Amino acid sequence: MPEFAHAMLREIHEQPEALRRTLSLYLDQNRLKPEFQQQLTRWAQLTDEVLIAASGSSRHSGLAAEIILEDLCGLAVDVEYASEYSLRGAQHSHRHPRFLAISQSGETSDTLAALGDARARGLRTLAITNVAASTMATEADVSMSLGAGVERAIPATKSFTCQLAALYLLALYEAGRYGRMDAATLAQHATELWTLTDAIQTQLSGWQDAAEMLAHKYRDASTFLYLGRGVHYAIAREGALKLKEASYVHAEGYPAGELKHGPNALVSDRVPLVMLATVDHALEDSVLRYEKTLGLLDDMRRQGAHVIAVANAGDDLVAALASDCVFVQPASEYLLPIAEVIPLQLFSYYMALEQGVDVDRPRNLSKAVVEPQG
Predict the structure, then answer these.
(1) CATH number assigned to the domain covering 7-181
(2) Helix or strand holding residue 13 (H, E)
(3) How many other CB atoms are found less than 10 A from the CB of residue 287?
(4) Could you tell me if 77 and 101 are in contact, meaning their C-beta atoms sit under 8 angstroms apart?
(5) 114 or 260: which carries more pLDDT confidence?
(6) What is the pLDDT of residue 374?
(7) How far is residue 59's CA from residue 164's CA, in Å, rounded to a whole number?
(8) Topology of 199-354 in CATH?
(9) pLDDT attached to residue 91
(10) 3-class secondary-structure state, position 355
(11) How far is CA 118 from CA 68, 111, 138, 214, in A?
(12) 271: which DSSP letter?
């Protein structure tokens, strides 16, 4: 691998291989490994309710998992801020969901406290972490480790996409267990995951060039509004967080349909929009989401807004409505987030360079928040 100026850029480029390592932990070619399925039986139980607790980027992967587990598996999923969950005490004691903790380090104090609370209540617990020997992985009933490798930059990149991949594999297991997918369909989804890693590899250099150009063009923006619908809302949240922590430029992530319910008042020459406008044409719900996004893009064009869109390669409709467009190769609806977040990571990296920020060590942040927060 070539030399990189910063760990963050190197780790962005490591994502195809990190994803392959993660998939290899749980897939034997296009089938879930029997030992992985056997391990998850210790977490699976009769309840159809899952509670996810996480913070920061890990919470955003949890938000994506909420949609995926509900849509593909029929589960009822809630996503809690880990820092809030353990403070509610008896307010949630009447519920008995399965509990899922997500953390890059496996040592985040808020998430560990939430895990401890869940264990004390007798809930079945599962931890997804990037450190197999972490406290969280050790204390949970079941641990799913990631193959991301050591992540040195403070802004999470490869650990985030590996979380998305692991959560997708968890959804495949649940979909098979509930009879919502047969073996052939599960194998097809697994094959798509492997194919996605190659597609990301071929697109990285183009995304990097586009992100560098866009960062220079929008370097003077005061605020960005990131917009997405459905599972892509989680990626809008993650893109906004990455920009804030890497470059110190303010950004917020919103459901695209909420733009006109207040935030549109902010849109101006110095407040551009970043809109996730990809689509899975094989899925009716995705097409509906896309059509609504096209309508919003048209409204924003008439309003004179500056819009950076992330769209399917060759999508002339989005390209005609947006000020700038970054293209990703088509994929299925629930795999698109793994690819579309990477151009946003690169954009935050180059925005940091434009602002003169030490991108690997942003101020006031650490890799694992280990002290209780006030």
Answers:
(1) 3.40.50.10490
(2) helix 7-13
(3) 14
(4) no
(5) 114
(6) 40
(7) 11
(8) Rossmann fold (3.40.50)
(9) 56
(10) coil
(11) 23, 10, 15, 44
(12) B
Name 143's Cβ contacts closer than 8 Å, sequence gap at least 6: 126, 127, 128, 129, 132, 136, 137
Q: What is the per-residue DSSP string for 146-179? A: -------SSS-SHHHHHHHHHHHHHHHHHHHHTT
Do the domains spanning 7-181 and 199-354 agree at the CATH topology level? Answer: yes
Residue type, 58: S
Assigned token pair, 342: 């990477």
pLDDT (tens digit per residue) in 56-82? 999 999 999 999 999 999 999 999 999
- Domain coordinates of the chain in residue numbers? 7-181, 199-354
Residue 373's pLDDT band, with cuts at 50, 70 and 90, is very low
Q: What is the dihedral of CA 301, 305, 306, 307, to 10 degrees?
A: -60
Query: Is the Cβ–Cβ distance between 273 and 254 less than 8 Å?
Result: no
Tokens of 111: 């998430």
DSSP 3-state assignment of 291?
helix
Question: Does 327 score more than 60 pLDDT?
Answer: yes
Q: What is the pLDDT of residues 209-243, one digit of tens each?
A: 999 999 999 999 999 999 999 999 999 999 999 99
**Contact between 341 and 156 (Cβ < 8 Å):** no
> pLDDT at position 264, please?
76
How far apart are the C-alpha atoms of 102 and 316, rounded to whole Å? 38
| String of DSSP letters for 33-53 | -HHHHHHHTTT--S--EEEEE
Mean pLDDT, residues 174-193: 95
Given pLDDT bands bounded at 50, 70 and 90, which one contains residue 95?
confident
CB-based contacts of 304, cutoff 8 Å, min separation 6: none
